[in-house]
UniProtKB/TrEMBL annotation:
Pfam families: DUF6134
Signal peptide location: 1-21
Species for this entry: Falsiroseomonas tokyonensis
Keywords, sorted A to Z: Signal
Signal as UniProt keyword: yes
Protein name: DUF6134 family protein
Amino acid sequence: MRRRALLAAVPGLVLAGAATATPANLDFRILRGGASVGTHRVRFREEAGLLEAVSDVQIEVKLMSFTVFRYAHRTAELWRGDRLVSLSSRLEKNGSTTACEARAEGEALLLRGPEGAQRLPGQAAPLTWWRRATLRPGVPLIDPRKALLVDPELRISRAPQGGTRVVLVGGEGADVLYDAAGTWVGFATTGEDGSAVRYERA
């Protein structure tokens, strides 16, 4: 029911379209300084030419028996081919909450968040990592945590066994790895406290 409600929330959307293979679900353990601190899961569903991707990040860092950092971020995306149809994102971080929404309208993408409304090019896409095609020159990138456009330098190179490595330079930075089929298989970044954070397939 939730999925159907999400599909119905896009006015005027034509659901007809060629069916494509639904990506396999993704599960990662999040490691900080080598210790497990959380999980990042992505769940996919396809219906009538629309692909739904729901990303869920849960992080809890403890010092002794006390929680010193808590982070929960859920992002739901609807894609029709290479076009983002809608997005909703909710971030809870140490008791503070931010949210953003996006919706395709004509040739544009309307983005609403803490900084107000923005009208973006229709090819704009969120940095939710699972979609390899998003990380290429010419695609306006959205940080869904803040509902803002970001413009990192992208360094794309070959990875072992025919995969692809994409390094984002600027801001927090990120090192993202995809296999030969374009499936997301690795991720590394720097935490807010300067600690090394990396993902490991669960």
